[in-house]
Amino acid sequence: MKILQNNLNKYTHCGSSPSVFIDMHRVFRVQVESLGLGYRFFRISSPCRLNNNNVVVPVLSYENSDTEKKAIYQDNYKKTGIYRWTHKESGKSYVGSSLNIVQRLVKYYSVPSLLRETKINYSAIYRALLKYGNLGFRFNILEHCDPNILIEREQYYLDLLKP
Length: 163
What we know:
The protein is of the alpha+beta class and 163 residues long. Helix content is 28%, strand content 26%. It has helices at 69-75, 101-108, 111-120, 124-132, 150-161, and strands spanning 19-22, 28-33, 39-43, 49-50, 56-57, 60-62, 81-87, 93-98, 137-144.
């Protein structure tokens, strides 16, 4: 795997697969083709960053949360962090956090669990996932963090993104 260091705020493709992109803001992402279903992004540093247009660049990004479920589980196994669901058509999003992301995702991928949760609490994300299915959403990991600062970091993204 070739590694290529680039100018500030620019990504450069190194020309081999898997490809590595590096910028001077400590953002390291490895782009790996995932069974012809799109790309998975891995990041070595923790928090996401803003690009030049003040758009959040997530740590991990999954364009198709339904077909990339296995990759999402593998990449986030036993990890704590902040995540974001974005409806592909409307652009509306939901920001959440979990001490165990995969454990939370098991609920999001289970229709009986979603139905049970909509009766207990009237959460918009549960109702939206039931209505549109996981296929209608993009899933992003905004940050992996220490459990001690999880709520603080979630509030940061809620204030920043205003979902």
